[in-house]
Amino acid sequence: MFEKLRIHIEKIVPLSDEEFEHISSFFTYKKYKKHQFLIQEGELVLCNYFVIKGLLKLVYTDDTAKEHIVGFAMEDWWETDFQAYYKQTKASMSLECIEDTEVLCLRLEDYRKLCEAFPQLEHFFLEKAYMGFISAQQRIISSMTVGIKERYQQLVEKYPSLIQRVPKSLLAAYLGVSRETLSRLSL
Amino acid sequence: MFEKLRIHIEKIVPLSDEEFEHISSFFTYKKYKKHQFLIQEGELVLCNYFVIKGLLKLVYTDDTAKEHIVGFAMEDWWETDFQAYYKQTKASMSLECIEDTEVLCLRLEDYRKLCEAFPQLEHFFLEKAYMGFISAQQRIISSMTVGIKERYQQLVEKYPSLIQRVPKSLLAAYLGVSRETLSRLSL
pLDDT tens digits, chain B, 187 residues: what are they? Predict the structure, then answer.
């Protein structure tokens, strides 16, 4: 189960067997059932999660109890309430399984020890952070400039395998429209 | 003029005089007048810019020639069309001076050499990337969950000095509404 993590990291930085054995010792394997929560709003966020198998939604719930989907995560993605994790504050979002899910958990103190022991992993995490930032910025631009239909098409093009697995009601909550609006657009 | 950069980096990683002297040699100082462009849409993006003095806007222009403000940058901020810079593609945005501006430019090849020579700077850039990602994610959540008036108030609270310097018409283009809508809300 750690093999996926190794392949994932080695896309950016090469590692010896000994190095990877040491690196993997910082991670904990966990298994969750569909609908289980990895992060609960209002609680401390202990881990950043690398998804080995499954599908998750990162959800922000507003004052009227309406759910907004901030992000999805599937195989080979990292997900957490990043602000709460990194700044060690309470979660403003929740992270919930859409499918049965297996993850590797990295606690913040272990993340710090890991980067100290393997400075090349800072390069790996930096690359991931840049990609996350670029994606978030593109999402901001899309939401300002194009309509729902085009944003939906962009999603399909960017993440074809994700779209097939995510229920339409959740895609609507990600795009910020109602399920009915998606249907009206024949999406 | 490099002193500001040193103070900025040393908030995250300590540096010796020799180290900083070497680091600063990777940067080039440049001065621009109000309305000048640092990045033109459709052209290659050579640099990431650290702002010493002044104010900039990062602009995405849509198919109808309408300008959308993706971000502002003032003293101590970094700004570029990050996707185009990092992936060495053509700019999809432009970066323009709202005030006379002085910057330190870091070319991508120099950024890479810099990180190779000073691995602790990857830690610095990683911290910056995380903060950028967190800010972008918060902006996405705000745009999905709260109205223009509240988003304006959040801006005022988060960046009080920025708000005083940015014309209302540009704040409207950042928030994704017309100047008239801002006025109607008495903002």
Answer: 899 999 999 999 999 999 999 999 999 999 999 999 999 999 999 999 999 999 999 999 999 999 999 999 999 999 999 999 999 999 999 999 999 999 999 999 999 999 999 999 999 999 999 999 999 999 999 999 988 999 999 999 999 999 999 999 999 999 989 999 988 887 7
**Considering only CB atoms, which chain A residues are within 8 Å of B151?**
none
**CA-to-CA distance for A126 and A111, rounded, in angstroms?**
13
Q: Is B20 exposed, middle or buried (0-12, 13-18, 19+ CB in 10 A)?
A: middle
What's the number of domains chain A is made of?
Answer: 1
B interface mutation test: which of A83, A144, A148, A178 has the most B CBs within 10 A?
A144
Between CA A59 and CA B62 the distance in angstroms is 29
Distance CA B126, CA B133 (A): 10
Query: Among residues A34, A33, A29, A41, which one has the least CA distance to residue A4?
Result: A29
Q: Which of B119, B125, B139 sits opposite A119 (nearest CB)?
A: B119
| A58 inside domain | yes
Contacts of A176 in chain B (CB under 8 A): 143-144
CATH label of the domain that carries residue B69 = 2.60.120.10
Q: Which residue has the tokens 């060495």?
A: B88
Closest-CA distance of chain A to residue B31, Å: 27
Considering only CB atoms, which chain A residues are within 8 Å of B144? 60, 68, 176
| Structural domain boundaries, residue A91 | 28-104
Instruction: Say whether residue B29 is in contact with chain A using an 8 A CB cutoff.
Output: no
Q: Is residue B88 part of a domain?
A: yes
Which residue intervals of A63-147 are DSSP H helices?
82-87, 108-117, 119-145
Of B77, B6, B9, B81, nearest in space to B45 by CA: B81
